[in-house]
Write a structure and sequence with these properties.
By secondary structure, this protein is mostly helical. It has one domain (3-112): Orthogonal Bundle (Arc Repressor Mutant, subunit A), CATH 1.10.10. It contains six helices and two strands.
């Protein structure tokens, strides 16, 4: 297994813990798996994920509470939007999510045991 695959697997494991109806930021996932400041790499990991997937990739958004819309995502932006809405997450007309309401707050003590 190469370094990129190992990083991706750690990212997918962390993302798998985000509960239904909540979101996490790319930076939050990076901090949980160790490489603080690697939010962009978390985003790239999610782009490499084969869909459909059991990993709830759609629950990861940027630090501003926005979906990171991109032409290169091959319309998965709209899939993400639909999946988040189906979980009851309110997304405003600017595609922003209220982090105060929906942000996942993992129990870090439990994760470090």
């Amino acid at each position: 297994m190469n370094v990129k695959e190992s990083f991706d697997l750690r990212a997918y494991e962390a993302v798998s813990h985000i509960p239904f109806g909540q979101v996490a930021t790319y930076g939050q996932i990076a901090e949980l798996i160790g490489p603080y400041g690697c939010a962009r790499q978390i985003r790239w990991s999610s782009k490499r994920l084969r869909l459909p997937s059991k990993v709830p990739w759609h629950r990861v958004i940027n630090a501003k509470g926005e979906m990171s819309m991109s032409i290169g995502r091959e319309e998965t932006d709209w899939v993400q939007l639909g999946l988040l809405k189906s979980e009851g997450i309110f997304i405003d007309h600017e595609l922003t999510i209220q982090l105060r309401k929906y942000l996942w707050k993992p129990d870090l003590l439990k994760n470090s045991e």
